Amino acid sequence: MFILLLLIATLLISTQATSALNSSAWASSASICKEGGCTYVANLVCCSVGVISPSNKLIATIFTGAEGCPNSAAYDPRTKMIFVPDLCLDEVYVINPATNKVVHTITGIEAPLFIVCDDKIPMCFATDWDYGTVTPFSPTKLTVGTPVKQCNRNPEFLAFDPVNGMLYVGNVYRHCVTVENPVTGATKTISVGYGIAGISVAKSGMVYVDDALYNVVFLIKGTRVLQNISMPEGVTSLWGNTYDPEDNLVWVDSAGSNQAVPINGTIVGTPVKTGNVPDGACTDSVNGEVYVTNINSNPPTVTVIKGTAVVKTVHLNDQYIEPFGCASN
Description:
7% of the residues lie in helices and 47% in strands. It is globular, with a radius of gyration of 18 Å. It has one domain (2-12, 21-328): Methylamine Dehydrogenase, Chain H, CATH 2.130.10. It has helices at residues 2-12, 23-33; strands at 39-43, 48-52, 58-63, 74-76, 81-86, 91-96, 101-107, 112-117, 124-128, 133-137, 148-149, 155-160, 167-171, 176-180, 187-191, 196-201, 207-211, 216-221, 224-230, 238-244, 249-254, 259-264, 267-268, 272-273, 278-284, 289-294, 301-306, 309-315, 323-328.
């Protein structure tokens, strides 16, 4: 599914992409986001990043670059910057929430897809979709390190374990998860699943891994697969998840049933309805809300969840053809 979306995106990309807001609007949106609580949504087709305010309104559109395809976002708590990888242009955009502008472009990372930043060491890591590696880069110096080979081609989702400090990397369409020491680069391979399509880590150190083909969530501790968590009947095509520390819930997107499913430990809760084809999710720790991007809604939307209920649907404008990954500051 993901490869198909990328092919469609490539055909649809136009140089007439989203234009930046006027200066007064920029100043207004930046003053709101400077203190945190804004959510940044990557728009896979139209070369832009949307900004949703803490009150859940679309307040800014940040143009990234013509002919690009920004596909996700990550927040670095040390620098307070947002990092947006562009798979098509081999670039990572650095967005300053204090101005809501792109302040730097990092090059030298091939086909960056997803990014995670470690709050224990001053490094961020990007999966390299085409090369089967994960590349470290410094969020302060904005320099790129040496790529680390993963267990197989097509690494996509990744997350840090706050308990053991390890980096977990899922390889889409392959039977493995790589556990990487972010300091030394040493790796171990966990043989699990087939269509790994999401990874998040709870504060307990439990790692939750979506499998889009088997429609289960694998529970991993360290390097051991503890169990498979089955989804309710009809919940299919799991694609993307996020951990909400306030409610201790892992939310799993079901692109096949247009739902998001909460998991508390190993207990599966009642799914909630989202927009059409949810396959991106992030958590705003400031207001304790979960954001689910709906890549095929018309008009495009982001579903906002608080606790175990949908509290709002944010309607994006027609410039947002395919909202995908997101991050909150």
